[in-house]
Request: fold
Amino acid sequence: MQRFLQFIATLTLFLSLSPLVAQETCSYQMSGYVLDEHDQTPLSGSKIYLQDGSKVAYVDSSGHYHLDGLCKGTYVFYCKHFGCAAVKQTVKITSNTTHNFYPEHHIDFEAIKVKGEKTEEELSLSKRKLSVRDKNEVKGLSLGDGLSKLNGVTTLTTGNNISKPVIHGLHSNRILILNNGIRQEGQQWGNEHAPEIDPFIADEIAVVKGANSVRYGPDAIGGVVLVNPKELKKTPGITAELNAVGLSNGRQGNASVAINGCLSKLTPLRWRIQGTLKQGGNVKTPSHYLKNTGVKEYNFSYAIGYIKPKYGIDFFYSQFNTDIGIFSASHFGNLTDLEKAFNAEEPLESANFTYEINRPRQHIEHELFRTKTYIAAKKRGKLSLTYARQYNKRLEYDKHPPLNDSLANLNLPALQFELTTHTGELIWESVRRKTLKGKLGITALHQGNTYNGRFFIPNFQKIGTGVFWIENWKPKTTKIEIESGIRFDRIYQRIFMRKGDDIVSPAHNYQNLSGTLGAIYKPNTNLVLRFNLGSAWRPPNVNELYSDGLHHGAAAIERGDSTLVTEKAVNLSSSVEYNGKNLSIVFDAYYKVINDFIYLKPTLEPTLTIKGAFPTFMHDQVNAHLRGFDLTVDFAITSRLSFVSKTMILRAYNRTENEHLVMMPADRFENSLEYNFQDRGRIKNTYVSISSCSVLQQRRVPQNSDYVAPPEGYTLLNLSAGMDIRTKNTTIALGISINNLLNTRYRDYMNRFRYFSDEMGRNISIRATIPMTLFTPKSSNNN
Amino acid sequence: MVALASCKKDADLVEVPPPVGNEVELITTMTLLFSDDAGINPDVTATFRDPDGDGGLDYDIFDTIRLMNNTTYNTSILLLNETVSPADTISNEVLDEDDEHFFCFTPSLANLSIVRTDSDGMYEVGLQSQWTTGNAENGTTQIVLKHQPDVKDGTCAPGETDIDVTFVTEVQ
Reply:
């Protein structure tokens, strides 16, 4: 511990060497980024200048620029990007200033605009995305853990390697993940099935809170997670970005590289290749290693597109592969074993550090191929067609191989699922004419699931079709914008399973009409108010209908109910965003009514098996409501020191049984202090931030629904620091974060291993992002 | 590198789910075979059977152990997987890996004593045991099979539970 404090003291000292006071009149600096206003892509090859030419700064490949020797006063800066008209901006300089430019791509603009979902649409639902800094700080973490930086998003974890995002208390099949615009179709129903996505691929990681079935189709009851890769490079040349992250706990290493290119002779032809490697070993709680908690991951993707303003086509392929060790002491023969594990001070199986992954383990592969083509007419709109194929393979290996040698030698997984999904979407988007702008679409899905090994969910085939229409109304003179939409969906699902020697194949049909109505009101430039009323639905998932078996991790038997009906939700949400001089506030409030909410209800009679009696849970339906709010307050104490406070409150109630809903995140409070150092020479954007995160004990739980009471609340201290170092050609971003600084011992209610395992202890992560320009054609000079 | 170029193949035929028990090892049945050491009283068997393992169908046989008073029985345990045909004798696999397995017997009857009579060379196993009854009484007997790879120490504590059945037991 002492060494850490020393380290932090040294770091702080080093960072504070720069003079903080006493500025000469003409020694102010201005720096920042030049970004694409739609997707925050850094726009290298731009320049910032004063009209008289007395000051010029070129933007490096990370999008960063730097101007110095500025006097106090008001300047008119021009920002010029290759292929675009210059934008003019007035900036008042009273101190060292950070200012980002968002040049409009006037010539190329149509080309960007027609890329559809990349265009930032104003939503009446609140969309929150990870800032550039947050995105840096979560590098090396899983998608679920990374998303939990967003207020209102928490995680449902199974040990340290499996983390699922939870939006406003809802997860799994109640949230939708759009990976590059495509519905992620894995085995997301399982609590221990994490999203199969490489976070390094993502340039934008965002969450749309609240029900939005109209645009995205069934399942989006809790919200939508958007994971979008960077747009293909628009300017000629080849650039690369290298990311390296090391984490102390688990001695985990991550390396990711992306290479982007655009042909100088044929600028519409653009490409990218990207790959990530990750390996970690056993992680450590404050007191001991957890046996078999390593992870391995190798992912790659490539994309190629021919993008013209009036038409274009792109192809994207990605593959995600992972091997996950499952904590050995989490696999139980029966309830007595589980009780023994509860009562143990330390895990019953001790371990040392190793990278080796043994049984029990999971092996998961996910493959996505997507192609999208569009034609656009400048004054009318754009028609786009998207097709995607996903293949998901999940192998779960039990703790012990079969006793029978010939069976054991096959080394087969105890459970194996293969899921193949084809999706298609045809969308017409009209440009705004006078006051109205619309979007009309049809979507289709075909899915087939097969299993091998132990029965848990049956084979099934699913066919889904949907049609939607969304209109947005905004007269030029008003400050209000109104959106409204309607959608109809139909889902056909046929099950194939064995009853004795016979194959039975019941079929289910679901159909639903959903609607949304929302408004955005901007009374002045500092304030945005949003309001949305929307409906969403979700057909019962096949595990809820037909699962029948033992969960070794939970030592419980789960049984489906084939008579379950569709789950329906109505969501009312409103948000207030205030952006003042020293104060900014984001307040998202929601009230969600879910009828026929499907949950696991404990049955009175345990099931007697050869391994003893197991508690048994049936999938049941009740009416429920969830309400709460997420509040973020950002206050600038001085120009360098700021205070950020985040509050997350959720109440989830089962109105049928008059009790709380099980497995809902507890109230959470996070407060942080951040100091931004003055830029000094080549070192910029230096900051250090300390934060404390408190999670209360979840006391709102139904009676007799759990083996033991939820764990006590806890408070963690986290530290993070970062800086950008400008070199001749690029800007390298460096960062360090220390999570659980004090090595606090704690357990979290939303971890399924809470019964028998502490959470990870202190974890130090060190990261570097290095953008590089590999090739710049001579002809592409600025201006 | 092949994977770079080609998509992985679609899942196999959805319409044909694999048969129950395919490629999976289950213990569906435990049968206790009692024979009177003195050869006087008739042989006794008692069975617990869950025909498709955990979940699905419930157990269909759950016998009461009925023994004669003041008798010494030599008892062997037979374990079967009856989801496959012919049935797989799992107790043979247990015998092959007897250094990883251990049976524990916990009778609630005051006068019933049970001792394991076999050994893996170091510790007892329990596939074979001797049950000695006293006067007539009723109660239960819990039989637990622990899987103890690398941790077997001759006690019931370590390892994971493969079997845990409590038979109603009557000494007549």
Notes: Chain A has two domains: 27-106, 116-780. The longest helix of chain A spans residues 2-15.
